[in-house]
Amino acid sequence: MLVVGCGGNGSAIAAGLPYLHQALLVYGHPEGLHVTLLDPDVVSPTNCVRQPFSMSEIGLYKSIVLANRLNLFWGLDWQGIPESLDPRRKLDGVDIVVGCVDTRAARGAIAKCAEDWSEVDYWLDLGNNADSGQFVLGEPLNGRNRRHRLRLRTISELFPEVIQKELDAGGLPSCSAAEALERQEPFVNPILANHALALLARLFRYGVISYHGGFVGLSSLGGVQALRIDPKCWKRLRRIHKRTPVVPA
After folding, report:
1. How far out from the chain centre does Cα 227 lie?
2. Model confidence pLDDT, tens digit, residues 155-206
3. 163 in a structural domain
4. Which residues are registered as beta bridge partners of 135?
5. Coil, strand, or helix at residue 241?
6. In a 3-state reduction of DSSP, which class is residue 213?
7. Is the residue at 248 inside a domain?
8. Alpha-carbon distance 165 to 84, whole Å?
9. Which residues contact 143 (CB under 8 A, 6 or more apart)?
10. Helix 188-206 vs helix 8-26: crossing angle, to nearest 10
11. How many independent structural domains does the chain possess?
């Protein structure tokens, strides 16, 4: 498994993956998960507000900090690589890509790596705004996943605008803790990550799922809408977003 991005969503996903690894071992899987964390960014003071980093880790690479922490605590041998995803990179040996990026350019790189000649089985994408977000598990159209009516559509197929890099706002990172909290609610990332991890857990345990994503809102209780595995639903989503584009983060 490759996790691209170790910020708010990526760090929350990384923290939950050892539990999924342990569950797989209990279910009888011979090896569980092997995870690689990919992110070129270093820890900044602002990251210490709503991401699981401490002041003593400022200036260190996020991917390496998280990998070392998980390995020490859980006795794992996972890897952290302080690099961006090269769109020309061949993802050899990667079954699942988890995208936790916050730009369309980065999502486009994931799409390019996971589609066409790739043999990636699944692409799980997470994205959020201030108090809402979405997670979508898709089967990229590639050498492994052929055209089929019920092939799980990816985030870029349902919402093509998420990989149009010209739509990136180009904003700078938050320069203060107050601004960071103003731009995002403090618990949106772990809530979104837990829903995504629960979906993976059901897929791994039962081999079938009744939904392949969802839209999560924190502004009210019960604010989760499932993304059904239904070609009619997928067509309706694309039609709606052509008329009134609502771009997920």
Report:
1. 16
2. 999 999 899 888 776 554 444 455 555 667 888 999 999 999 999 999 999 9
3. yes
4. 126, 214
5. helix
6. strand
7. no
8. 16
9. 116, 117, 118, 119
10. 30
11. 1
